[in-house]
Amino acid sequence: MLAASRGIILKEMKPKSPKDRIICFCYNISEQTILEAIRSGSDSLMAIRRDTYASSGCAGCSEEVKKLIRKYAEEHKTKVG
Ligand code: FES
């Protein structure tokens, strides 16, 4: 791949906002999608897997998904499963 082509591809992949960043590369699931699921009541890793498929492939994003769940719970003083 030409360096110029790679630069264009990387620029196009750059998230428009921090919440557009991809968390789960297996299923191309963004932080925004995971946060929407959390706001809708998905309060555990299993619930996020069920509702978004994030973390149901290689599970390499599991820690990042759990961090988002914990962060939301801390910000909203809710208990997480
Ligand atoms: S990166 Fe999320 S399941 Fe593989």
Q: What features would you describe in this structure?
A:
The chain has four helices and two strands. By secondary structure, the chain is mainly alpha-helical. The chain has a single domain (19-76), classed as BFD-like [2Fe-2S]-binding domain (Arc Repressor Mutant, subunit A), CATH 1.10.10. Strands 1-2 form a two-stranded antiparallel sheet. Strand 1 and strand 2 form a beta hairpin. Helix 2 packs across helix 4 (62-76). The radius of gyration is 15 Å and the shape is globular. FE2/S2 (inorganic) cluster is lined by residues 24-26, 54-61.
CATH architecture: Orthogonal Bundle
Number of domains: 1
Reading the helices and strands in chain order gives HEEHHH
**How much is the radius of gyration in Å?**
15 Å
Estimated share of beta-strand residues? 5-15%
Q: Distance N terminus to C terminus?
A: 45 Å
Please state the structural category: mainly alpha
Number of strands: 2
Which segments are poorly predicted (pLDDT under 50) over 5 or more consecutive residues? none
CATH topology label: Arc Repressor Mutant, subunit A
CATH class, please?
Answer: Mainly Alpha
Biggest sheet, spatial arrangement of strands: 1-2
What would the principal axes of the Cα set say about the shape? globular
The helix fraction, in percent, is 40-55%
How much is the average pLDDT?
86
Relevant CATH superfamily: BFD-like [2Fe-2S]-binding domain
Profile the largest sheet.
2 strands, antiparallel
Query: What small molecules does this complex bind?
Result: FE2/S2 (inorganic) cluster
Figure out the total of helices: 4
